[in-house]
Amino acid sequence: LIKSLCWGFVADVQIAIKKHETGKIELILSSSLLPLKLHYQNQALRLCLGSTAVGAQYGAISALSINNDCSRLLCGFAKGQITMWDLASGKLLRSITDAHPPGTAILHIKFTDDPTLAICNDSGGSVFELSFKRVMGVRTCESRCLFSGSKGEVCCIEPLHAKVELRDHPITQYSLLAMASLTKILVIGLKPSLKVWMTFPYGRMDPSSVPLLAWHFVAVQNSVNPMLAFCRGDVVHFLLVKRDDTGAIHVTKQKQLHLHYDLINFTWINSRTAVLLDSVEKLHVIDRQTQEELETIEIPEVQLVYNSSHFKSLATGGNVSEALALVGEKACYQSISSCGGQIFYLGTKSVHVMTLRSWRERVDHLLKQERLTDALALAWSFYEGKAKAVVGLSGDTSKRKAVIADRMVEILLHYADRTLKKCPDQGKIQVMEQHFQDVVPVIVDYCLLLQRTDLLFNQIYDKMSENSVAKGIFLECLEPYILSDKLMGITAQVMKDLLLHFQDKNRLENMEACIVHMDITSLDIQQVVLLCWENHLYDAMIYVYNSGMNDFISPMEKLFKVIAPPLNAGKSLTGTELLPFISVYCCLAGRAYPLGDIPEDLVPLVKNQVFEFLIRLHSAEGSVDEEVYPHVRTLLHFDTREFLNVLALTFEDFKNDKQAVEYQQRIVDILLKVMVENSDFTPSQVGCLFTFLARQLAKPNNTLFVNRTLFDQVLEFLCSPDDDSRHSERQQVLLELLQAGGIVQFEESRLIQMAEKAEFYQICEFMYERELRYDKIIGCYLRDPVRKEEVFNYIHNILSMPGYSTEEKQSVWDKALEHIKELLLLSPCKAADLVAIHFSEQIESIITNLQDQFLLFQFLRSLLDPREGINQDLIHLPPCITEQFIELLCQYSPDDVLETLKVLEYCRLEETIQITQKHQLHEASSYLLEKKGDIHGAFLVMLERLQSSEQLPLLENIEDTLMKTIALCQRNSHNLNQQQQEALWFPLLEAMMSPQKLSALKSLTMQVLNNMAAFIALPSILQRILQDPVYGKGKLGEIQGLVLGMLDTFNYEQTLLETTTNLLNHDLHWSLCNLRASVTRGLTPKQDYCCICLQQYKRRQETADEIIVFSCGHLYHSLCLLSKECGVVTKGLMRWMCYKCNSSNKGGGKLSENFSELKKGTCRCSPKLHQSLLPAAGSESVLDPQQIQAFDQLCRLNRGTSRLALLTELSRTHGEKHGLLSVAHGDPATSSVFQNETFQLHLAPPPLVEE
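and the corresponding structure tokens:
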């Protein structure tokens, strides 16, 4: 944007104001003078209309409008009058005083495209149509009300104006008018008859935000139609208006623009660009299509004039609504106007103009700031058509691009001159290089984007050649474009300089990469070939020969001569030494090396030349002792498989004529002669050859002949049992040969015999599968050390999958059963899984036949232990098998017996107990006795283990056994009477309190006392201790610590109980105080209107309509609540529920009977909580409102773990007596607030809440 100040106009206005003695310049709109500035270069003041007398009578000017031909001016005044002036003569034509109700100011007055029709909007919110006529020389004005302010106050109007070139648009005949009230937008048509075409409600808005309207014709989908922009607050809506073939008007919504600021003005500057003014007087230039903010300018110095006094109608006594007056606080409708791409802003002391710079001005502005790179980038965005807010470009696309390209060429030449002039004359060479590296790539880039290589390699290159550093940077900049094939045609001189530059810099790889991407016509072939041979640039050399001279053989001959000796000697090749082979492969495949394709007309010729080269008996300059066919031999040594693959592709391209057949047969004979008659090829290489031959022979149109004896020799060679080297390689080669069709060349029985002899089990599997002898394949898997584990999947697939006959499956089943022992030795777990699925009826016979007891144990463990993953529903075994498994388990893994018994589903208790007792597994025996119901027997087993000093030499073992015994007693004490409980706990206590153990086991004895106190009364425990003969004779010193600890714990728990009682009493008193305060506190509504009908609460006077106020602050009419089914009568009392809170909490829907009772104007708005407290429908007991409110208050004030939860946890035992020394050793999975790591007991009184 360009911001300028109308100095000449302002000066003339100041003189006019002084002349008429009307006051200061800031009163320019509030005076009766009308300064009219026509847009001339000298900004001269043409007319000064009116007088001080008119101002005294009509008040200040509040609105202006000029018609399309600038012949008439309409003025609206603060006291409601309207005047029309002739702009040619300055005469007053009309003075209208009865167009609208008196006592209201004119807020807006607008001419339509029809000069006899205007629209006005007054401070009463009404809109009127003014029709100007002239009858018998008398000028009249007829007024018609379009919208009454009693239905909603309109505060903004905007008729649709069309430019001269769009006057014939079909939609202009409707004379559309947009109106914005405080609640909605309306679009109406004034012609041919009044009709409403669209109504669009705002929704919830800030009441102080200003409604804004703006029309503009835009091009959408190859048609030009009017678009209405309307906004209020921070959202701009775009509506596209179209007329269909029937004459109806359709309005469609476009993409909305969401902003982070509130608007007070919206102005179109062209069809794509809008200028927005926010509430802090900051301008934002926005592109409509992309919604991108292009520029932001602050304009506080304008001191914008606001129309607040007219919206408040101060000149007529301020008789306007509060809503309209609130909108008027930020209204500046009459202070901003646009015309011809310019926007005028009226300030208190000046007039400012904002104009979009043309594209050329924007570029020149950057050039003046010496931002040449930014200027080129901006110009290129104009060239591509991606720039925003473009002004000054006309014509079709090619014409616009030509204009921009000429300007960019000027900038590039200026850029080059400036770069050379500003080059530092002194300093390090790195400084100069950095200077040119920042500039030269930019120049090269834009020259290539503009496709001006003539400019790049002539004028600009000549300029850069004046400086050696700049010239080097220029040449290096060309490299990426050459490598990406964006720059093919380079002049011979530039190419020569480029090669010399790379050679001087010793950047030979870069030079080679550039050569192979260049047009061969731009190269000096002799210079390049010589350069390539001297520096071993073989890629470039091959490219020049192939592309420049269509010679594909000469470079191969020279390169083969260089690399053949080391390759035949067994050395591996890397890097450039591989190029001959790659070149041969490319030529045979019809591809050019290093890139591109061979011309189609040359492909057959090139292939023939390459074949002739390969099948030469000797090389051109070969030695006397050179082996025959050196070229083929070299390629086979390099990569046999790839060379044969390329040959196969080439054979497919051959035409089936006599010459092609001869070529193929000759090549095959040469391959056989080279590879079969020599021993310097590996089995893999020989196998690749015969695989290639087998594939060729298997083709339906095969014409090749190969002696079958050769295949027999290859079979003997690959299956030689004396050669153990490369066993897997030889087997894989033979397998590939068979799969490629070579099996027809062998006798199958002899092949199987030799494969078994050579231990080629994959070959055997391949052959057996062809013969459908699937049972034989099991033996192949079992004998193959590499694939043994796969036999299980193979058997399962054969027996499970469809596609196999019953006989085939039966033979596999029999074979698997025959080898079941081998399968078990291989993997007991997988074998058990296989048996469970396919051999479930044979399990007993399998167990009987297994002589190895440990193997039997592994099998039964995998089969019967559910933790192994086998589905137990598949197995139906007699109990004796399970007992046999437990017997073996006690022998081979006694530590796992207990855990296994816990998961076993089927076992006989009596027999299992005998087995565990036989092997003296006390814990397992105790578990089984407890499971049987013999609690005392289980306890005696554990007690015996505890008392057996021979089995428990370590304190850790004693502690472990004791904990398990205590757990046994705890689990079962709940189901025993007092006598039975004492029979468990007292023997355990006596065992731990024996004098010889007491000193070392005091802590363990304390554990017993703590746990038994939960079930045995404290006096009984003390009495039992004192009845002991040892302690009954006065030797209480040994247990003094135990007794004192019990008494201390008792005192602590007594104190804790008293403290808890005091806290609960405190809570009750505090809750009642808060409840009383909340019940007596008054309610304050959040708003003064009903939340359902949005009408003020005092608008109704019906006797049956009451005002309902909820504690949440929402206010309703009682009839509105009843219409939403938020009230119901229960036991003669009306129960209400807050509609808004209930909808937000429950997601809408009708309410049930769960309503809290209201006193006059009160209700709780916690429907979910009430639903949990109130009984279901039909129940007789209903909590009263005070109870519900008290519980709500209590739950809301407590934080963290509630005391109610603590009391619930403490009462979980349902009245059972707890020991005073009890310590929680229960199931860790049990949920308890006391087991939470963050649990804390708050002993401080609750905080006070302000009433």
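(Above: one complete record from the training split.) The chain has 50 helices and 32 strands.
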